[in-house]
Design a protein that fits this description.
Radius of gyration: 18 Å
Largest sheet: 2 strands, antiparallel
Distance between the termini: 13 Å
Number of domains: 1
Strand order of the largest sheet: 1-2
Number of strands: 4
Helix content: 55-70%
Number of helices: 9
Length: 254
């Protein structure tokens, strides 16, 4: 198992929770891309590190650090977007990858399918997006990249990724992290979408229901680039971090 908690004493566990909670809170205060449709809201730099928490800390300590870090960031001035449920998307990603590291495939696959199904049947979801190509208009499934991520999770590639992360080979670690983070970040995105169209829409929120088709159309070409960029940055951060932690706390696995 790649998670460092298994090999750490209780005092170190508390230290890890404190350190990773503080790190997550600070990164959550740093905005990146604006959240289209949500006035004044933006994605945070913490989105890069959230999936890595599940890989290195496991599903429980990783998610606890994210939840505590989210509320700490709120206390430090981070605006609340989803009625204090802002921790849910990142927590979903961390829990899922932490369970994959523990080789608990069935609950992660079931959760991914449930999130995708809930998004597709939500009344404010646009199932297809009309994209003009030349003189014609072609309809594409909005959730096409989420379907790809689910296929990767179910395929042998998903299991290989977990094995690669546990090796001491730099290339395999980076490849494994990329695949796992891709799956985790797409699940995180699904949870975020569900909160966005449930809580941000009127009457709970301020976005008119009629605005959602336009919002989904406007982000259709943006969200794949955004998510794949997060995956790439997570590899840049996560691969060296995991190697350092493995040298200090983990037995070498070939």
């Amino acid at each position: 198992m790649v998670n460092i908690i298994k090999n750490a004493a209780k005092t170190k566990i508390i230290a890890f929770i404190s350190i990773f909670t503080a790190l997550y809170a600070v990164l959550r205060l740093i905005p990146t891309m604006p959240m289209i449709g949500a006035s004044g809201a933006a994605f945070s730099l913490s989105d890069i590190i959230a999936p890595i928490y599940g890989i290195i800390l496991g599903p429980y300590i990783g998610s606890l650090s994210i939840m505590l870090g989210t509320f700490l960031a709120m206390a430090m001035g981070k605006p609340v977007v989803f009625m204090f449920l802002d921790f849910l998307p990142a927590t979903i990603g961390a829990v899922s990858l932490g369970l994959l590291i523990k080789r608990k495939w069935v609950p992660v696959i079931a959760l991914n399918i449930a999130l995708l199904a809930a998004f597709l049947i939500h009344p404010l979801t646009s199932i297809f997006i009309d994209v003009p190509i030349g003189s014609t208009t072609v309809s594409f499934p909005f959730a096409w990249l989420h379907i790809v991520a689910l296929a990767v999770l179910i395929s042998p590639l998903g299991r290989k990724a977990v094995q690669w992360v546990k090796t001491n080979n730099t290339t395999k670690i980076a490849t494994g992290i990329a695949i796992m983070v891709f799956v985790g970040t797409m699940m995180q995105h699904l949870m975020g979408n569900l909160l966005f169209e449930t809580i941000m829409a009127q009457p709970l929120g301020s976005i008119p229901v009629e605005a959602y088709p336009g919002i989904w159309t406007s982000i259709f070409l943006v969200y794949p680039v955004e998510r794949l960029a997060l995956v790439a940055l997570a590899v840049v951060v996560g691969a060296p971090l995991l190697r350092v932690l493995k040298k200090s706390f983990l037995p070498t696995e070939q």
